[in-house]
Amino acid sequence: MPNCTGDICSNQQYVTERKGVINYSFSGFCPRLFSVTLNEKKDKTGQTIEVVVEGHPGTYIGLSAVEHQLHKMDSGADLSPTEVLEKMNSFDEQGNGTHSFSWKSRDGLPNPFVHYPSPSYGMDARQIFQYAGLVTFTDADVPQRPDRCEGEFASCMDGTCYRLQKRCDGFADCTDASDESG
């Protein structure tokens, strides 16, 4: 799982105050050391070579051989760590995920993938837990902003209401444009 959500709290003597939540990403690939050597002397005809791979126990190594010119064409059947991370990030909620960017290489090189931390869009502790995909079971008082909007309406950050159909439509229906934040 390439994303992690951190909840920042301040515990006082009688009060626990929630300071914020941040989402950040990390690479789920664990680079273990291994060595690859080519033995050109195995076949006396010089038509083939032997690839020798050595690594620590538990190291998984996958090899794939493709002609150089075919590899540069990027046929779409190749699998890279960047493509795996992009797909895993696509399962997160779009309004609450991390911001990511990758560069596409024309030379068949691996695509660099960069993640940027992002805050949660939640207005209170209950929404932050909900956006993070957490179900909270507690007897503690989880603070919740009063919501006077009912039915087909949702609440702006300033307490006013807007129609749910107007969410993320490109026009700010709230004075603070919170209806466009996810």
Task: Describe the structure using short key phrases.
3-stranded antiparallel beta sheet, Low-density Lipoprotein Receptor, alpha+beta, 9 strands, 182 residues, 2 domains, two-stranded antiparallel sheet
Unreliable runs, pLDDT <50, ≥5 residues?
none
**C-alpha-based Rg, rounded:** 25 Å
Proportion of strand residues: 25-35%
Tally of helical runs: 3
The biggest beta sheet reads: 3 strands, antiparallel
Shape: elongated
Q: Helix/strand-derived class?
A: alpha+beta
| Strands ordered across the widest β-sheet | 1-2-7
Distance between the termini: 22 Å
Written account of the structure:
- With 182 residues, this protein is of the alpha+beta class.
- The chain folds into 2 domains: 19-138, no CATH class; 146-181, Irregular (Low-density Lipoprotein Receptor), CATH 4.10.400.10.
- It has 3 helices and 9 strands.
- It has helices at residues 68-73, 81-89, 125-131; strands at residues 3-11, 16-25, 34-39, 50-55, 99-102, 113-116, 118-119, 153-155, 161-163.
- The protein has a 3-stranded antiparallel β-sheet with strand order 1-2-7, with no helix packed on it. A two-stranded antiparallel sheet has the order 3-4.
- Strand 1 (3-11) and strand 2 (16-25) form a beta hairpin.
- The model has no long low-confidence stretch (mean pLDDT 71).
Summarize this structure briefly.
The protein has 182 residues and is α+β, with helices and mostly antiparallel strands. It is built from 3 helices and 9 strands; from the N terminus they run ββββααβββαββ.
